């Protein structure tokens, strides 16, 4: 199966009132939606291409590009504001009701809000970092600072510094991997979209522990009814491990799995362990 699951063989598009949503599709079975993180050069394919063959063995796997990322339509506003509405547009346009959702970083944040506000659409939820609030760690975290540094000065060196903050072992950052990210991240249109999300203003906002925002997040977490698996890299420098404490306690039906020697990209850096942890969790309902 993996031999035919190339970027071009799996790519699809969906027309919506707001623009074209780009996605990848492979496999049969219950629907599974994969939502990617944010950052320079990020897309659904860059996050999940390595995991697609394993997921497609069990699920009709759909990898969506958020507006402002990959090949979906560009944004006129902060991509975080358009992300959740675009997921609902996608589910409606595809004729999908209840789905399992896996979200990395920003995708985990969006998936958690989807589960909290549209509980009838999420059967099971898996997050890879991305939710919660740091309890002990400084804010903003190192990874976000380096991301803004690249956005302000988009050089290959700054991109490499940011990418090194995303992983535990920089050996993962092969020349081919870095070049692929650089080609996408240095595109002016892609940079403009990322700048709407990460900039000096967003950094300043993260330095202030906004009480109202924390209360809103607590309310969101307590409203998630779907069975939830939190996955985390022990060495995550973007959403530090202590960020898991709040969602672990507040999501009613929640489990936590921590990957050792792993940064923010658990689905890439601990690929085999990630798949062997997440797929059985998603299949519990199917097998039961």
Keywords:
hydrolase; 8 strands; 8-stranded mixed sheet; 288 residues; AB_hydrolase_fold; EC 3.7.1.17; 14 helices; alpha/beta; 16% strand; Rossmann fold; 44% helix
What's the helical proportion of residues? Answer: 40-55%
In the CATH scheme, the class would be Alpha Beta
CATH architecture: 3-Layer(aba) Sandwich
Tally of individual helices: 14
Structural class: alpha/beta
Global geometry: globular
Write the element-wise H/E pattern from the N-terminal end onward.
Answer: HEEEHHEHEHEHHHHHHEHEHH
Mean pLDDT: 92
The major beta sheet can be summarized as: 8 strands, mixed
Order the strands across the largest sheet as they lie in space: 1-2-4-3-5-6-7-8
- Give the name of the CATH superfamily: Alpha/Beta hydrolase fold, catalytic domain
For the CA atoms, what is the radius of gyration? 17 Å
GO cellular component, one term: membrane
Organism: Gordonia insulae
Keywords: Hydrolase
EC number: 3.7.1.17
Q: Overview of this structure, please?
A:
- It is a single chain.
- Helices cover 44% and strands 16% of the residues.
- With 288 residues, the chain is α/β, with parallel strands linked by helices.
- It has one domain: 3-Layer(aba) Sandwich (Rossmann fold), CATH 3.40.50.1820.
Question: Topology, please?
Answer:
Layout (H helix, E strand, L loop, with lengths): L6 H4 E5 L4 E7 L4 E5 L8 H5 L3 H5 L3 E5 L14 H15 L5 E6 L1 H12 L4 E7 L13 H11 L3 H10 L9 H11 L2 H8 L4 H8 L3 H12 L5 E6 L11 H6 L3 E6 L6 H4 L1 H17 L1
Parallel strand pairs: 3-4, 3-5, 5-6, 6-7, 7-8
Antiparallel strand pairs: 1-2, 2-4
């Amino acid at each position: 199966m993996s031999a035919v699951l190339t970027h071009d063989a799996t790519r699809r598009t969906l027309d919506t009132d707001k623009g074209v949503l780009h996605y990848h599709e492979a496999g049969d079975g219950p629907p599974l939606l994969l939502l990617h993180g944010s950052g320079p050069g990020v897309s659904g394919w860059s996050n999940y291409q390595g995991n697609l063959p394993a997921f497609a063995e069990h699920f009709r796997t759909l990898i969506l590009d958020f507006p402002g990322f990959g090949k979906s339509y560009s944004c006129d506003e902060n991509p975080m504001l358009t992300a959740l509405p675009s997921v609902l547009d996608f589910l409606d346009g595809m004729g999908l009701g209840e789905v399992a959702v896996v979200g990395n970083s920003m995708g985990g944040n969006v998936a958690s809000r989807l589960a909290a506000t549209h509980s009838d659409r999420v059967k099971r939820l898996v997050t890879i970092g991305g939710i919660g609030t740091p309890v002990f760690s400084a804010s903003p975290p190192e990874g976000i600072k380096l991301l803004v540094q690249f956005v302000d000065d988009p050089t290959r060196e700054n991109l490499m510094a940011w990418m090194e903050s995303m992983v535990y072992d920089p050996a993962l950052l092969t020349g081919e991997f870095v070049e692929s990210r650089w080609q996408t991240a240095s595109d002016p249109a892609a940079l403009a979209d990322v700048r709407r999300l990460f900039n000096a203003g967003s950094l300043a906002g993260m330095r202030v522990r906004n009480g109202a925002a924390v209360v809103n997040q607590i309310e969101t977490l307590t409203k998630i009814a779907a069975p939830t698996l939190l996955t985390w890299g022990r060495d995550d420098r973007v959403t530090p491990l202590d960020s898991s404490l709040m969602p672990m306690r507040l999501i009613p039906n929640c489990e936590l799995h921590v990957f050792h020697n792993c940064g923010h990209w658990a689905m890439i850096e601990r690929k085999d362990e990630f798949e062997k942890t997440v797929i059985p969790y998603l299949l519990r309902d199917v097998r039961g």
